[in-house]
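Checked the freezer inventory, then went back to the computational side. Two predictions to log before the end of the day. The first one is the construct we discussed on Monday; recording sequence and tokens without edits.
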Amino acid sequence: MSTPDKMVPHNVEAEEAVLGSLMIDPEALYRVATFLKADDYYIQKHGWIHDAIFTLHERREPIDFVTICDELERREQLEEIGGAAYITHLINTVPSAIHIEGYARIVTQAATRRRLINAASQIAQLAYQESEDVDETVDRAEQALFAVSQRRITRELTPIRDVVDKFSTRIEYLFEHQDEPLGVPTGFADLDRLLGGLQRSDLVFIAARPSVGKTSLLLSVARNAARHGKNVAIFSLEMSAEQIVQRLVSVETGIDSQRLRLGRINPDEWALFHQATGKLADLHIFIDDTPSISATQLRTKARRLDSEHGLDLILIDYLQLMTGDMHTENRVQEVSYISRSLKGLARELDVPVVSASQLSRAVEQRTDKRPILADLRESGSLEQDADVVMFIYREELY
């Protein structure tokens, strides 16, 4: 599927005006550098000229007619753009650079529309492929749109006065509410006192060896946070959604999980069972049990859930079962990519992301079995990406 050139959004005059402005006033570069890229131009040669200008800037060389022509000549592109005469034409396009931001916005808006058209074309082609699973098709469609939206996320420099005012307001609030956790409550008094609750935009790892209690702790945090009116997303790569509910009901009722699984409930426990399931059904907990979910799939689903319901907390069980979205040389690099992606998700949605993580066998080979940061499995970057790392240590197991 293709779109005729005459229908493709673009504005040649705006592109020329941007480049002309950059040439007559190189300082104008700072006003557009955060959001305008070389591939935003519809005309390829305009992208080349933009790249040449920014390269000169990075090398701290003068930006003028002579240096731009020289840089393009060095790249063997000067003749292809129309020679020095075309550079002269661009310089004469605008009298000043005062409106460069407006011109640049026109260019980037047209570029976004073109990317949307390309994404829509890709989605249409995916939809025609009946051999592919429809859920996988929807995920890939969301990824295509997500890639377009990510291009538009930029952050401007913030005056320190604004940051100080925000910080002061936060400290005053903390002073007046010293007995309340600032973040999402975990339900564990000592932990909430230590952390102040789970903080917005934090990436938290709960690490332990298998069968030590990572999942139980995650589910307890989910239940306690939801009881405080928080919207909680659980991404379970190890257990099904029904198994998650089984564990939650077991904790709520005190009925052994194994007996629940087999339906062996005593007559006097049925009232307790129905009361517990009724309470759980009213909690704002959302469960995704996609096995081997990729970092992009998880991020896409979390963004959609946040837009539809609002999210306060994301829980993942567990990190090492996730897959990356790009080819990497080894598993360590893949886990590092996943970890960075989760930190990016926490910052983007401004919610705490808590993930269980396996520990390496090294902890069992030492005399002192207490885990340390170096025991985090398959990646040295987890400790760098994380804001908080918690270990579960049960002395009776050793």
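The second is the one RB wanted added to the comparison set:
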Amino acid sequence: MGYKVLFLTLSIANSGLWLRYTTIDSSRTRYSAFWLTHFKPGNPRGFMIKIRDNMSISEDSITLNKQLYSIRDRVSTGGYKGLEWNLRFKGGIEKYNPVPLLYRILRRKSKYVIVNPNTLFNGTVIVNNEEIKVENYRGMIGFISGDKYLDHWIWTHCSSFEEDPEGWIDILVASPDGKRRVLFGLLKYDNKLIHIGKILGVNYIGELSHEKFNANVKVGDYNISIEARALKENMIIAKYEDPANGARYCHNTEIADAVISIEKGELKMKLSCNKRAFYEYALTKVLDESIERIKEITL
């Protein structure tokens, strides 16, 4: 009982794609779905295709109608009536789990794994019969599962910085119960991996918004500042049905801006991700009715 998600997010400046494979199984509802969303300035478009066929999802593969599609085969394909994708990408060497050790114990039924945080995508995607040529898009592959969703969360990710193509960041502010807010994540730069909030997470007191996010954290000798900004005209709202109760409304874009500042002694460094950062704010209500919604198609 619960939900499972395998997702791919990829972008270049001012063009982003979000693909999602989902299963949900509960006393309230049961279905499988493919999601495909294209982001370009002022015109995001997204579709969710609910299917009757049985689909199972793991960190490395999708099984549909007893046929196995492996993420390790480095190909993702699918489609339905003007919505198609055929993508090639490099397989991940190492998986990452940014969740603090405490919350892995407290929420044993929940899981978030970064299957590949920074890889190149190439291929073709068709959205509403418009062909998008994917040439050296940078992005990530992730897996999520659980018996219920968090009350609300903010997530931002950047695969590759302008100053460090092999670097990346994955940051979450998560609220399990609607009261506490815990910040945690991973930052890789200059071949160094920094685990933020590794054991307990970091208490977050700042404001949360679907258009901006700021945080300042200290990890050992490092002082790290994180800033992300998104334009609502570049966002789309996805409705996640919760296996336990209600729904979460995810305000999402793949063409946001992010800047990370790092200080350690005399070291001062800035890492930027312009017009291609992934950003989402999910909660139990819609914040702005003017934002485009993902269209649902049921087969």
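For RB: The first helix runs from residue 101 to 106. The chain has a mean pLDDT of 90. Let me know if you want it refolded.
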